[in-house]
Amino acid sequence: MAKKDSDNPDVFGAALLDFYNEKYTEDITVISSLTEDDEIPVPYLFRDFEEMPEIEQEALKLAEGKILDVGACAGSHSLYLQKQGKDVTALDVSAGAIEVCQLRGVEKTVHADVFDLTEASYDTLLLLMNGTGIFQTLKNTPNALKQLGSMLSKNGQILVDSSDIAFMYEEEDGSYWRDVSRAYYGEVTFKIQYKKQTSQAFDWLYLDFKSLKKEAEKTGFTCEKILDGPHYEYLARLIKTN
Fold it and tell me: Residue limits of the Methyltransferase type domain (predicted)?
């Protein structure tokens, strides 16, 4: 999700609040530099554990200690963890999202950009729904990982999912095209739109596992793949080693 910005409409927050207040009439439109416009069904953001993909379910099972749910959105992951008796804090840049988390019963919330935090005592950072997106670009990934690592306790972990989107560049003859204006094929620019409000453009990163592992190991983490999903997505666990 885009960084917090006073001039940037809270598109996600508006959609989540409408749904919570039973004013749901349309979904969120995603405008992409890579593909045709797509939609995010707002009801899906309120899903319970049984409706979550296996990758998310496995990540929630592995989350332990003091947990920060980064990009908590409507709070579905935080609520599940809280019901399991775990110490979880929901964080989001969207004020509306945090309001919805609170209305749904999430006890600990923070309205902030994760990279603005200075607290260094979390045992688990949970980055789901393409969590590598917040790294923005491949070039920025080492700095992002270093910042996240500074927030972890000794031997703390990051549970993150992403997708290898190389398949989106495949031609009918089996060859691949590349956007020469991008340093890495997983770098995408998005805008999101809801009820005639459109966000500012923001960079988002889909990172293949091999590249994630390489960058993680350069910045003081071990990195293992926990699970592959059915369509090029995966869950990884990064453990702080220093």
Answer: 68-159
CB atoms within 10 A of CB 177: 10
Give 95-128 pLDDT, tens digit per residue.
Answer: 999 999 999 999 999 999 999 998 779 999 999 9
User: Could you tell me if 120 and 27 are in contact, meaning their C-beta atoms sit under 8 angstroms apart?
Assistant: no
- Residues 58 and 63: their CA atoms lie apart, in Å, by 9
Q: What backbone phi and psi angles, to 5 degrees, belong to 130?
A: 60, 65
List the domain range (segments joined by +) for residue 87: 53-184+205-240
Q: What are 75's two structure tokens?
A: 């709070």
The CATH number given to whatever domain includes residue 77 is 3.40.50.150
How buried is 11 (Cβ within 10 angstroms: 0-12 exposed, 13-18 middle, 19+ buried)? buried
Kindly give the pairing relationship between strand 66-70 and strand 87-92. Answer: parallel
Number of structural domains (the chain) is 1
Q: What does the block give as tokens for 189? A: 């620019």
- Which residues lie across from 205 on neighbouring strands? 187
- Does this model's pTM top 0.85? My answer is yes
